[in-house]
UniProtKB/TrEMBL annotation:
Protein name as it appears in the record: Inner membrane component domain-containing protein
Keyword Transmembrane listed: yes
Membrane spanning stretches: 89-106
Keywords recorded for this protein, A-Z: Membrane, Transmembrane, Transmembrane helix
Domain Inner membrane component: 4-54, 68-118
Top-rank taxon, per record: Bacteria
Pfam families: YccF (PF03733)
Keyword Transmembrane: yes
Assigned GO CC terms: plasma membrane
Length: 124
């Protein structure tokens, strides 16, 4: 079932959402100071391509720098990516088949707002 959902996700919204994260990552990697934001964005892009069967967990070793970085991320990229997830999720929830995909989009909003201090892990 995960494979089917991932393939449908990839076709309907995964590619576009991942592209948004890749663009944000490339922009962040232009400056040396924002490379950690770019790497986090690339990590989320991979998650946005194939989300079913994986989840986001908090890293317990992340401290104050992650919190400060998340505030900066929220202001410059996170809000716009979250709006993309909301709009895509609402559009997917219009159809019965798209409801699980819309819910998955809504579940990605927290990590799009605050990606630092998070880790993407495989589900058993």
């Amino acid at each position: 079932m995960r494979l089917i959902l991932n393939v449908v996700w990839l076709v309907l919204c995964g590619l576009w959402m991942a592209l948004g994260y890749v663009v944000a990552g490339v922009i962040c990697c232009i400056l040396i100071v924002t490379i950690p934001f770019g790497l986090a964005s690339f990590r989320i892009a991979a998650y946005a391509l194939w989300p079913f069967g994986r989840t986001v967990v908090d890293r317990h070793d992340a401290g104050a720098p992650s919190t400060i970085g998340n505030v900066v991320w929220f202001l410059f990229a996170g809000l716009w990516l979250a709006i993309g997830h909301v709009l895509t999720g609402v559009a997917l929830c219009v159809t019965i088949i798209g409801i699980p995909l819309g819910v998955a989009n809504f579940k990605m909003i927290p990590v799009s707002l605050m990606p630092l201090g998070k880790e993407i892990v495989e589900l058993p």
